[in-house]
Amino acid sequence: MQFFLDDSRRLTGPNLLSDRPGAVIDVLFAGVDHATVIHCWQRHIRRYMDAVEWHNESSYTRCFANPDGRLGATLAITAPIDVLYAATEVNEAAWAAVTAELSLTRTPDFSAQLAQLQQMIADEANPALLRLQDAAARHSQPFLSDDDEVSAGYGGGAVSWPVNNIPEVDSIDWPTISAIPLALITGTNGKSTSVRLAASVVEVAGKKAGTTSTDFIKVGHRVLDTGDYSGPGGARTLLRHPDVDIAMLEVARGGILRRGLGVQHADAALITNVASDHLGEYGINTVPDLIETKFVVRRALSADGILVLNADDAGMVNYVEQQQLASLHSLCWFSESMENPLIQSQLDNGGRAVTINQNKIILINNGQCTDIADLTDIPITLNGAARHNVQNCLGVAGLCAALGITPQAIAEGLKAFSSNPDANPGRGNLFSFDGRQALVDFAHNEHGYSAMAETVGNLPAKRRLVMLAQAGDRSDEDIRAMTAVACRLKPDKIIICSLTDYLRGRPEGEVEAVIRDEILHQNLPVECIYQAASTWDGVQHALQWSQPGDLLFLQVLTDRQRILSHISSL
Known about the structure:
The chain is of the alpha/beta class. It contains 17 helices and 24 strands. The strands form four sheets. An eleven-stranded mixed sheet has the order 11-10-9-12-8-13-14-15-16-17-18, sandwiched between helices. It has a six-stranded mixed sheet with strand order 19-20-24-21-22-23, with helices on both faces. It has a four-stranded antiparallel sheet with strand order 1-2-4-3, with helices on both faces. Strand 22, helix 15 and strand 23 form a beta-alpha-beta unit. Helix 1 (34-51) packs across helix 2 (84-102), helix 2 packs antiparallel against helix 3 and helix 5 (191-204) crosses helix 12 (407-416). The radius of gyration is 25 Å and the shape is globular. The model has no long low-confidence stretch (mean pLDDT 93).
């Protein structure tokens, strides 16, 4: 038998297995089955949890099979929010007991371990934090906590204190504490664009939008900080800012799996789509696993919260049916086709939906249809050629309507948003210069790349050039699939870029070789291939090669800002 502790971490909010904070370990094993491991761990973790007097806490498990043939499990416990570091130690102690028992080695001294764990819990305990958490719940106010700060309320109605200097709850002026509307946006592709598009609608509605994304935290037009803020840390920072009227949080897969959601209360959530991306981490090995992960956002919804979903995504539709979510949540479905059965059902039954009728986006609610805007009047759709952005507009319209924003403001917000480098950097930025066009995008998986390739195919061009690259942590199959999509455009030139800073365990040149081999397998002539040393080198070659009438599709995964600035200056 073999046992491996792959990862151990705190869960600070609603997560894949529970609505509550706690601790989780991901384990791998060979020579023993799931049932034996799970039963053994449940017995040991209950013993430890009872010993530290966590009698009301629960345990959860999730089994998976790794691509390398080993079995795996995610083993989670709930725990008081003030002792989450100690909770990881409790979980690891139980796992050590499991491995000792099943491998017939010496079992750790329970009494000695228990004494250490009790001391850790005592050292970390913060009774004032728990009292504040309970008081916030009694006053129906959101509660946010991290290692340094704790707060009640959201936005201008939030009040914060140092985590080690929390006042007595009876001294807090609770009537002055309040929340603001909050929406969560997740999915495989379109998250950042949807967040920014929703912010445009909020601005037109006369409110100040606060947003988090993989690029920055932003309040109105002011960027508070740049970087990947699609996790819990970004959410807490934004929701404590006094100037935010409505918050739109991008929620990424990694943040959900590492820490859980950053919030426990939200008014609406949007899932744009779910497709293969970043599989093989934290036991998420299949698209159904990923769908389950994305749907964690529903755990934060209030009782009257609305879940906005893509009716054109078959996997998402199947999950809703299997989990019977329509009986648990108020749903708003969106689809490009008014004939979609889910759209018709919503129309017939007085539900919410967003769809397209005669090239116009329409809102459906309580059996009534309201025209929003013609696709030709929404710049981000490129007159309907950018079908992925059509879907983003549908989802955002449903989300904003769920937050109570008027149809007129939704329409004007969609019309006001342009996918240029300032408003939406690296997401479908279309440039025109000297009779040529360049479409720059960050598409980094097959689903996103396919959407952009469809857009390229819908745009007129005398000749087409495609530039692509991929990081080393993607499988050969994923790399080949994305390359095959590029080849379907029958490009006159195809540039392969090296990403030397993103080899991620692969030998230098291996990813490029896989791409090149697939290009030749797709029967494109070797003469059309150019090997670029970097993304910047690839863009320079593309610009030199191009002529009036040409369309350049540039997948820019590195050096994005430099490239966008350069093309903007042409």
